[in-house]
Amino acid sequence: MKYIYSLLFIVLSLFAKAQSNDEEAIKQVITSAYIDGIQNEGSPDIIRKGFHPTFTMLRFSDNDVKPYSIEEWIAAIEKRKKENAQQSSKAEGKFITVDITGTAAVVKLDLYRENKKTFTDYLVLYKFTEGWRIVSKTYYRHP
């Protein structure tokens, strides 16, 4: 019986470590590609590395849902950069929850600018062979 408990402890420890590694990898992808990349208008290459090509943001507007692709988003960022209309303040993110089940994850993230909460985001990720990538987003814009 002692060996069964030891084996169970080892298996649970390995599972917890894998879960912790996945959570850190997810936070890294979101920080790099989404917070620094999208929100703080970073490199399109970094953005594309963290977002799957089929990514869609689902925007709720006028009682309808309107999709927005990652390439449309990158084009808008690049246009703002060319027009020198960059964000005046840097966005900061606060991870509220990271929920992982196997190769799927959902993250609730609050975004702040100048210490004011501007968005609550719900990001969906899948773990591909190359790592975690953001595949979808819904959000609430705070008044």
Descriptive report:
The longest helix has 38 residues, at 2-39. 41% of the residues lie in helices and 43% in strands. It has three helices and six strands. Helix 1 (2-39) runs antiparallel to helix 2. The chain is an alpha+beta fold. The chain has a single domain (2-141), classed as Nuclear Transport Factor 2, Chain: A (Roll), CATH 3.10.450. The termini are far apart. It has a six-stranded mixed β-sheet. The model has no long low-confidence stretch (mean pLDDT 90). A hairpin with a 2-residue loop joins strand 3 (91-101) and strand 4 (104-113).
What is shown here, in short?
Helices cover 41% and strands 43% of the residues.
Question: What is the residue-averaged pLDDT?
Answer: 90
Q: What are the secondary-structure elements, in order, as H or E?
A: HHEEHEEEE
Major β-sheet strand ordering: 2-1-6-5-4-3
Q: Point out poorly predicted stretches.
A: none
By DSSP (H or I, 4+ residues per run), the number of helices equals: 3
Assign the CATH class.
Answer: Alpha Beta
Strand content: 35-45%
- What gyration radius follows from the Cα positions, in whole Å? 18 Å
- Report how far apart the termini are: 59 Å
Q: What portion of residues is helical?
A: 40-55%
